[in-house]
Amino acid sequence: MFAPHPDAKLSSHQVLISAPVKNFKNAVDRNTIKRRIREGYRQHKHTLTTSRPLCLAYIYIAKEILPSKTIHQAILTSLERIRKHEKKD
Fold first, then answer.
1. Does the predicted model carry a pTM greater than 0.85?
2. Which residue among 1, 46, 61, 74 sits deepest, i.e. has the most Cβ atoms within 10 Å of its Cβ?
């Protein structure tokens, strides 16, 4: 999920990462998931080149902990979709 940031003067994007307690009772599991998402975003954020700052939200909805490679690929795919959507506007 993404939206343009209301403060257009910012130089970077804001990212929210969430792993629900409902699906993962142990904090260790939630932290592992969030760490993998953060790392995936960090490695691929250079692909997102937009003229305005964005607010991004990554909400983990899978029922099990997926491997890092799968999460990184999903992050890359989402950033490419955002980039294509921004080019249309």
1. yes
2. 74
Identity at 82, one-letter amino acid code: I
Q: 58: Cβ–Cβ under 8 A, 6 or more apart, which residues?
A: 15, 16, 17, 18, 37, 41, 75, 78
Domains contained in the chain, number: 1
> Domain of 65?
2-88
Which residue's entry shows tokens 């403060």? 7
CA distances (Å), 14 to each of 22, 55, 63, 72, in order? 25, 5, 26, 18
Q: What is the pLDDT of residue 89?
A: 66
- Please list the rounded mean pLDDT of every run of 10 residues in the chain (89 residues): 76 90 96 97 88 90 96 95 82
Residue with tokens 């799968």: 70
